[in-house]
Amino acid sequence: MTLVQNFPFFSIIIAMFSGILSLALNGRRARNVSLGAISLVTVMSFAVCLYCMDAGASYTYRMGHFPAPWGNEIRAGVLEGLAATVFGVVMLLSVAGGMDHTYEDVEGTKLNLFFIMIDMMLSSLLALIYTNDLFTAYVFVEINTIAGCGLIMIRQKGRSLSAAIRYMIMSQLGSGLFLIGLSLLYDVTGHLLMGPAKEAVALIEAAGIYGIPMLVILAVISVGLAIKSGLYPFHYWIPDTYGYATPTSSAILSGLVSKGYIFLLIKIFYRVLGRENVIASQIVNVLYLFGLAGMIMGSVHAIMEEDTRRMIAYSSVAQIGYIYMGIGLGTQAGMVAAVFHMLTHSATKALLFISAVGLYEVSGDKKDYRSLRGAGYRNPLAGIGFAVGALSMVGFPMLAGFISKLLFATSALQSPHKMIPTLIVLAVSTILNAIYFLRLVITLYSGGESEKKGKASSWKLRAAILCFILLNLVLGLKSQPVVQAIWDGLAMFD
């Protein structure tokens, strides 16, 4: 085994160890440890992606060389390496960009706790991406939930506590359903490792037994992870959660956490239950319908909001609907579009939250539309960053969001029975996206430059915005290698 093949395991351990180390450090030293860990993990994930692309195959690594159930496996391929790399970049920029506001929103004595939660969130996301063991996946789902709740309530301002409670209740509901599904799966197959479990599921399907239990397993796991990822109509925790957390927490929760759960669901579909079995069960049709509903209703709610934080949060409901719509198409092209949009939305939504911070700084820290009038002139870079993110979500050419919608449209053509409703809802959703996003962009550049309010943005915030803009342009202008990597990664899942 080469050194690179150990990187997935090292990445998870490094993130966890940095959290443990931060227990004994003050806030600023804990910050440095977290930033260092995120940077190192990102580089290692990129190396794994390049290694698997060069090898043209995935690989598994059994931790401790112990057989199941005492040991568990890590699996790495092109798609895992790509997702981990993008997640690492987004988390690094989100932490750095929101640093100054973290110092303002979090008490000095709790700063190290904040970065401990960041480290635990990173380790759990990496584990959800790389794990080949269903029980390990559940353990890190719970770690992710605890870390997310900590990131919300640590602010201790406004409605952050009630938002954290709502988040915890809905998350535990989703986790409980997920655990029930895993327990039933283990009872039927006798395996928790994904490879042997898939073989057992194939034998069960060939024998024509356990038809109803397998359908229940598929439904319970899908609903559990759908709740945790915020699929409509299980989205009611999202506006307060994303709207009242710190900027860094909002960017991470919106951009990464929900995508981690969706990535796990895709892995279970391919690596455990079998994609053909999932399609035959008609569960994808249910996810498809809820995805279409989310695309419309998330945008409708966003239009009705005057608070820009909640508007951005509701837009996430719509964008999660896009992802589930792509999964629900039941084709490989639809899944590729869904995965690409996961990466696109991760980068773009973090850009919107971080750019909004710069706009609030020069608007008396007010978040409503009226107060942001002319803010694009008062903070030009933040205005440009928000405009780029908004136009990307609308689907403006050359930006990442345009490629996402193009992939969704082309993949719909391969599903004759779903083509017309997909294209109609895609068009309507795009129009609705344009209404609330462009309305805010126009507001930012309306009324001319008024008297400056608040403080100037720090260099860290400006650097993060610039890097996010660059990432969006790269995903938009150089999308073909990324799309091809997703195709190759999904092929390795099979």
Description of the structure:
The relative contact order is 0.10. The chain has 494 residues and is an all-alpha fold. The mean pLDDT is 86. The chain contains 21 helices and two strands. The chain has a domain of 206 residues. It starts with 6 loop residues before the first helix and ends with a helix.
> Can you give the helix content as a percent range?
over 70%
Mean pLDDT: 86
Class per helix and strand makeup: mainly alpha
Q: How many E-type strands? A: 2
Overall 3D form: globular
What sequence of helices (H) and strands (E) makes up the elements?
Answer: HHEEHHHHHHHHHHHHHHHHHHH
What share of residues are in beta strands? under 5%
Count of helical stretches? 21
Kindly, what is the distance between the CA atoms of the first and last residues, rounded to a whole number of angstroms?
Answer: 23 Å
Low-confidence stretches: none
Largest sheet: 2 strands, antiparallel
Please state how the strands of the largest beta sheet are arranged side by side. Answer: 1-2
Radius of gyration over C-alpha positions, nearest whole angstrom: 21 Å
